[in-house]
Amino acid sequence: MNRTLTARRRLRRTIAFLAVGLAVAAAAITGASVAWSSVSSASSFGEAPGRVADEGGGGEVPDGEPGRAASAADGAVTEADGVLPDGVTVFDDRYPGVANLDAGLLSALRAAATDASADGVEFFVNSGWRSAEYQDQLLREAVSTYGSEAEAARWVATAETSAHVAGDAVDIGSYDATAWLSEHGSAFGLCTTYDNEPWHVELRPEAIGDGCPATYADPTQDPRMQQ
Questions:
Q1: Could you report the per-residue pLDDT of 173-218, keeping only the tens digit for each?
Q2: Fewer beta carbons under 10 A from the terminal one: N or C of the chain?
Q3: Residue 92, CA atoms < 13 Å, CB-side half-sphere
Q4: What pLDDT, on a 0 to 100 scale, did the predictor assign at position 54?
Q5: Cβ-count burial of 43 within 10 angstroms (0-12 exposed, 13-18 middle, 19+ buried)?
Q6: Paired sense of beta strands 125-127 and 190-194, if any
């Protein structure tokens, strides 16, 4: 009887230890799951900064693509200010950043894009029309990024002088498209404006017969930016 009782006690202790172990393991798994969920949420809501749009607006300039901010309620710019998501083409009228471009510029872009598609080239728009608020935000971010207003001016114009705010400029978002426009754009009156922003395209109707005018080194050399 004593041996039987002892064996039962040992069995109960073993079961108890196992129960405690399982409880600890379950708690650890739950904690890890919560921690991973928190990390995932933080990653989703705290996106790493992208590129600061230049006066041209897109290209390879480090920026924050601030237009992806949440909502106008907290002062952030939205699609209504010209912010564009990835994958927008010159045919996407549902975005103000495209629809609010100058009609002549947009018509020329679409004609060029139609021809370019035969060569397997698609025209994506990194940035088009922008509200003054959007442009002001880009300029503030550029000053923060580059450390001075003088250096920021090489990339981002003021709202008063920006061709984007006027709807007269578009930033084309792929090397293939900018290379295609470099070769064929003048036939549509589409010309790059700045050496440091080969993606920044404006309408120059006279280029159809005379070719594109000489480019400026950067926006600080453009007389229109001196207003």
A1: 999 999 999 999 999 999 999 999 999 999 999 999 999 999 999 9
A2: N
A3: 21
A4: 52
A5: exposed
A6: unpaired
- Comparing CA positions, the residue from 219, 222, 206 lying closest to residue 56 is 219
Start-to-end CA distance of the chain, whole Å, equals 105
What token pair was written down for 57? 């607006």
Considering only residues 149 and 35, tell me which one the structure prediction assigns the higher pLDDT.
149
Q: Provide the residue type at 106 as one letter.
A: L
pTM score over 0.90? no
Judged by DSSP in three states, 196 sits in: coil
| Model confidence at 98: pLDDT above 70 | yes
Higher local confidence (pLDDT), 170 or 227: 170
DSSP percent split of the chain into helix, strand, coil, nearest 5: 50, 10, 40
What is the phi-psi region of residue 87: left when phi exceeds 0, alpha when psi lies from -120 to 50, beta otherwise?
left
* Pairwise CA distance, residues 168 & 101, whole Å: 6
174: closest CA among 223, 105, 113, 100? 113
Looking at this protein, which amino acid is placed at residue 4?
Answer: T
Query: Are the CB atoms for 92 and 190 separated by under 8 Å?
Result: no
Beta bridge mates, 170:
201
pLDDT of residue 67: 34
